[in-house]
Amino acid sequence: MEVLNMIINLLFSLAVALLFSPLLCGIINRIKALFAGRKGAPLLQMYFDLYRLFRKQTLVSRTTTLVFLISPVIIFVTSLSAVIFVPILPGGGYISFTGDFILLFYLLGLGRFFLVISALDTGSPFEGMGASREVFFSAMAEPVIFIAMLTILRLNGAESFTEAISTETGKNWIILALTAIPLFIVMLAENARLPFDDPNTHLELTMIHEVMILDNSGPGLALLEWAAAIKLWLFSLIIVKILLPVTALSPGIYFAVTILSVLLISMIVGVVESVLARSSLPKVPQLLFSSGIIAFLGFFLSFSNFFVW
Amino acid sequence: MLSSYILFSIGQKDIKKLLAYCSVENIGIIMIGMGLGVAGVSFDYPRIALFGFAGALLHVLNHALFKGLLFLGAGAIIRETGTGEIDKLGGLLKKMPLTGTLFLLGSLAISGLPLFNGFISELFIYAGAIIGAVSSEGAILPMVSALAILSLALTGGLAAAGFTKLFGTVFLGRGRTESLTEILPVPGMMKTGMIFLIPLIVLIGMASFLVLSFLERPILLLTGEAILPAFLQLKDITSTLSLILGFILGAMIICFFIYRLKVRGKAVVQSETWGCGISGGDASVQYTGSSFTAPITERFGSLLAARKELHADEKIFPQKSWHLKTRVEDWFLSGVFIKIIQVLDKGLALLRWFQCGKAGIYVLYIALTVLILIIWKFLI
Q: What's the rounded Cα separation, in Å, for the pair B6 and B25?
């Protein structure tokens, strides 16, 4: 049955996202450690961290309200549900409608809204600073993502993003590169990676994501960390699905190639993080604006038929 | 262009002004939808016309709902606390839980976030613009549609910024003035008014296919019969959407119950907010509303006519404290709009001699008018 096929496909995407996303963080940290000449934490460290956090007690500040308690759940569910719009296996059933990527990114926006207000709930200036920067950067990053998405849709003549990545027709490497680069930059911005934020610290220079979850603990913190990993997985998967051709590979091989490509993207993120320093705050909008220009260039080029190979 | 007023909304310090400028932004969104609809009709793309007009009309309704809710909430806040200045409030969620929760739902709706009605109308407009950008021929309509999507995305993000600022500063954290510790509860009728608007907000948000039958006739008036096949696609989209959103809401509820079990299992200890070793600062260490959106207002400072007044005591051992005042001015209102009204006022003041206040002269005016009309009748 078609519907059953689709549900199984979606559940499979969710399960893969849940299982593999902590591995991405492990890879990034291992690459950073290698660059620094250290041995680094085990690759599976985040799994151990999640397990440890789930067993811990929750500490709650007197200043906070119910918003602080329910936010981890909402953020986790929205990040996870955004994954269903990037099905990992092609050809199997997928949900598709015009403007589905809008729902994808606005679900992430819903999670972000609650992250920001749970940060403000603590009444601490640390979280306030992180929240203030987060809303600013994400407001700048959204238009860039949407232009990149539009380019992909135009390239494949589809009106639905899931359809565009699952049944690919046109391949135009220049435009794809011009789309993948802004998406990569936005991925760094949205997931609080260098040069936008340093996930290792929460000092004033680098207070964005890491500091908004400062007062969370126990299972709530586990959910928030996992949600951040899932978001990273999601963006990497989007980039991979855009770039990988959907040829007639058997599902198993295609799956393995996709997973390896996502791990490769996380390795690239690790290298970028090790090589770049945190860019100063006034430079961040400039960086996002330039990536927007690149994305718009890609969109502009999709109007012509020069480079069809 | 109207949507850019969200920037003014973000810079405001008064609840009502923030909401008012946000309304201007929402009218901008409606105009984008209308524009897409008209473009669809004139370029003969019925689907774009349908989505554009559907989104615009639905947004009119949605805006009435959630803006009404927000203003009612603002009224409750101002009544109970005596002030509408965001930077003087704080921590109100504990004092007025129901009002605060309803205000949160209204903020989520106006930011266009899923599960609420704002998202549905914005999605329609987005979908129309996507069709315009992807499936239309030529270059003008795709470019314009892409611009529409850009501005929708930017204003959506900034609206979320503005409303996290509003909700976070007013309701969360700690109160920023002393008088906030004694607040009377909000009257029941005020709460009833707000609760009244919630069902429709949630209904349109979660079960959007129900609204389509209401939209059908107005849109037919605007576009003509050609759009009827496209209506099926709209029905399709809204049904799929409602199904997905229903599942997501269900997943949230289930996860929340699992989470509650896990968290209640170990005692939740109440403590102080972590202060990096310097605990016990008073409420003024928190971010104020204006500092929360300071990156945005500074970045767009030239557009916003942001003004900064700094009274500084520049000596090495300062005697007086430093004062910083920032504000955002609506230059369109003061520079253009009010100027026009002033010119009109001056011009019309020249005619003031006409109203002299003597009843006899007014009777003379009436007699003169009747005389002129009689002469006119005989001349023509």
A: 5
Quote ipTM for the complex. Answer: 0.89
Measure Cα distances from B135 to A150, A244, B13, B141 in Å.
11, 24, 43, 10
Closest CA to B157 of A98, A85, A193, A110: A110
Give the DSSP letter of residue B116: S
Measured N-to-C along each axis, helices A45-54 and A218-243 cross at an angle, to the nearest 10 degrees, of 150
Distance (Å) from the C-alpha of residue A218 to the closest C-alpha of chain B? 8
- To the nearest whole Å, the CA of B106 is away from the closest chain A CA by 13
Distance CA A21, CA A263 (A): 10
| Three-state SS at B311 | strand
Whether B271 has its CB under 8 Å from any CB of chain A: the answer is: yes
* For B162, nearest residue in chain A (alpha carbons): A135
Question: Which chain B residues are Cβ-neighbours of A208 within 8 angstroms?
Answer: none
pLDDT in tens, A271-306: 998 898 888 888 888 899 999 999 998 888 887 654
Burial grade of A248 (CB within 10 A; 0-12, 13-18, 19 or more): exposed
Shortest CA distance to A79 belongs to which of A109, A59, A55? A109
B85 — alpha (psi -120 to 50), left (phi > 0) or beta? beta
Give yes or no for B91 touching A (CB within 8 A): yes
Percent of chain B having pLDDT more than 90?
18
Please compute, for residue A297, the number of CA atoms within 13 A of its CA located in the half-sphere on the CB side. Answer: 15
pLDDT of residue B84: 79
Judge contact between A229 and A308, C-beta under 8 A.
no
CA distances from B19 to A121, B1, B108, B301 (A): 21, 18, 14, 20
**What is residue B134's predicted lDDT score, i.e. its pLDDT?**
82
- Regions of chain B where pLDDT drops below 50: none
SS3 content of chain B, % helix, strand, coil (to 5): 75, 5, 20
Contact by Cβ (8 Å): A58, A224: no
